């Protein structure tokens, strides 16, 4: 697509991909366990979440928590402590399962029976760009009615899918949508 | 050549001017056509005041005069034909009723007369072409079976634009009881049961069709109406149970406040930006922790009272947070800057080194009870207060040193309409002794302020900066009240929280007593001792 940025940041503009901002916001809305996984309280809580039922355990195993029941039992009883790599895996599995579980509810709230959610798009930061190269990029808002693809790919951890879905959404901003490929923030409530 | 063309066109233009009726006739024509000045002025491309000039003695000239004459001419012609048709139809119906009373013809059944014959069973109305052509817009159908008139409820023989009604106001008599008249016995029930349900809608429809003039000065439902409607709805829902209605209203105060905010921002210059990027200093460090902003909450008690026993009055500032909604709020995303002087047109949070405060004995420190020294992040109202106190008028301290700022272009009017709507609702509620509205308004503004930051109870608005600014504004307002009391010769004993001010002396000559937001009310009075610095609170 011709509007896409080829070498973003070459002249000093700063920002993140719009889809990343959306993922960040969705993570924020999904909430979850705040204590870091490195603390015992944190990984314990995550393990309890992942072993609450056979289905979640299955989902956790699918998400990469491939340890034996023996190990899990030892962890949960506090006899052993997960290694650093295991902690990472636990965190990863927790995030995947949590996203998957929350996605359904989040999607319903964002779609709001077809009324959609108002999204604010805050443009990229041009403060470090030379004066003559700065462009007027305005703050924009839009109503996004269909979140299915966005939330779906977010829940699946599919970055490229989310990027594509978000791009198809911001095309509705009009011919200048390329200016909003990179943003400082994307804000919406659910 | 071209010179002569121009002269020719000028010569053409000079000619007899269009004839205009006298001024009062112009006005009368417009009013009879139910057109507003604004409408006519828009059509002619002039301002409404110009039009009023034309209607009160002045005359337009040139091309616009021709246009105006054309309009008046058209109105004149149209009104003349309308009056003719009106009189025609009136006479016609009169004759019809006359003939009808004499001989029962089936073309036009009497409006009042119930038809009990077998012909009434046919529900489908017969359209009569002769009547339909008389009226130029509406299609009038003659009904074989009279239906209840949508205006008065009595059986009517005609249907206009799909609704049964009488054609003349003489026939159409609204029932005194208000209940729709009982349908005639012989009428099909399926047909009559529908009629009362439809009575409200057609009434509105006829009102709407009265002309475009109705729209121009139509009263829009304002934000105050929104509050009143919510209260009335809740009271109706709980059948007048005040406590239950209050509880229900308080429960939905946050979404209602957001709706009110949206309503008050309609057609406004600035958007309410609800989810900007937030700098780290405004983010909570932990889930239950605080961010780094110092709101300058006063918590000050005078160390030594003036000698002698004193009557101390604890004053309560009414609606402190409501008044604090008027503050300089940053509109967009906060931008970082270092080492700049204060810009009055911007607002936000600032890292400052506060000045020394030397009046601790008589007045609280404007930055509140801060234990640790060094620079701190304060908000705009605190900074403005410090700058004001360091200014030539007061000279109470040195100006603060600003190191860093996160600011954005600001306006004081962002929540102004919102505040005024709430204030008006509050004032009327106090006047009428309406406890429900009072509680509802109070819940709305206080919860709006406390949840506009990172709260899960209000996810529509994510502005921790505004929350801090509004709170600080409330504290700064209290501080200024303390200063006012001090300057008027009262001894300020204590300044606490958002709305508590204890003073010694005749405070009534400084503050007005009452319940309005500009007034104060007495919370408590107690005497404070002389012997020791601690005052023994009797009423505390």
TrEMBL record, chain A:
<protein>
    <recommendedName>
        <fullName>Transcriptional regulator</fullName>
    </recommendedName>
</protein>
Automatic annotation (TrEMBL), chain B:
<dbReference type="GO" id="GO:0003677">
    <property type="term" value="F:DNA binding"/>
</dbReference>
<protein>
    <recommendedName>
        <fullName>HTH cro/C1-type domain-containing protein</fullName>
    </recommendedName>
</protein>
<feature type="region of interest" description="Disordered">
    <location>
        <begin position="174"/>
        <end position="223"/>
    </location>
</feature>
<feature type="domain" description="HTH cro/C1-type">
    <location>
        <begin position="27"/>
        <end position="58"/>
    </location>
</feature>
<dbReference type="InterPro" id="IPR010982">
    <property type="entry name" value="Lambda_DNA-bd_dom_sf"/>
</dbReference>
<feature type="compositionally biased region" description="Polar residues">
    <location>
        <begin position="114"/>
        <end position="127"/>
    </location>
</feature>
<feature type="region of interest" description="Disordered">
    <location>
        <begin position="79"/>
        <end position="137"/>
    </location>
</feature>
<feature type="compositionally biased region" description="Acidic residues">
    <location>
        <begin position="83"/>
        <end position="105"/>
    </location>
</feature>
<dbReference type="InterPro" id="IPR001387">
    <property type="entry name" value="Cro/C1-type_HTH"/>
</dbReference>
<feature type="region of interest" description="Disordered">
    <location>
        <begin position="41"/>
        <end position="60"/>
    </location>
</feature>
<dbReference type="Pfam" id="PF13560">
    <property type="entry name" value="HTH_31"/>
</dbReference>
